[in-house]
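Predict the 3D structure for this chain.
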Amino acid sequence: MAEPATEADSDAAGHPSFVRTAEEIEVRVRLLIAEMTASVGSERSSHGNDGTVNVRYMVDDVAEAVDFYTSHFGFKTQSAALPAFADVTRGNLRLLLAGPDSSAGRPMSDGTRPGPGGWNRIHFVVSDLDAEIARVKREGVRFRNDAVTGPGGRQILVRDPSGNLVELFQPAAR
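Done. Predicted structure below.
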């Protein structure tokens, strides 16, 4: 039987693999996403063990979601099986857009149907939050909230056409 992880354990990138609190998990996720979005523009396979992070969003309308992510956030379409499914990529992020007719949209054994929304989100680090807000506002993007400031920086939440969230985050100056 394997020994339990300790705080001294770390992954290949040197990040601690032992996580105890929700705050530590949030910090770990933010670090991973920041690393992932830092390599925008690299071309990689979307299915292999190549550092690609795959995130599935349930959406109401796959074509509308593809248009939203490619038009406003620089994603590129990889494949589309409309109206059920499409995947779009940006750097090492592969966003799987699953509609009600996709296999991911099928009811659970208790009858519950997966749907969009919730508080999980993809997170883009930006250097000028105000400029990004102005840009996407001109493009007609909807916001979930006003920009908020915390000890780590400033952020705002954008809604995609199905209500899924995208966080735009500007780290605090160090």
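The chain has one domain: 22-102+116-171.
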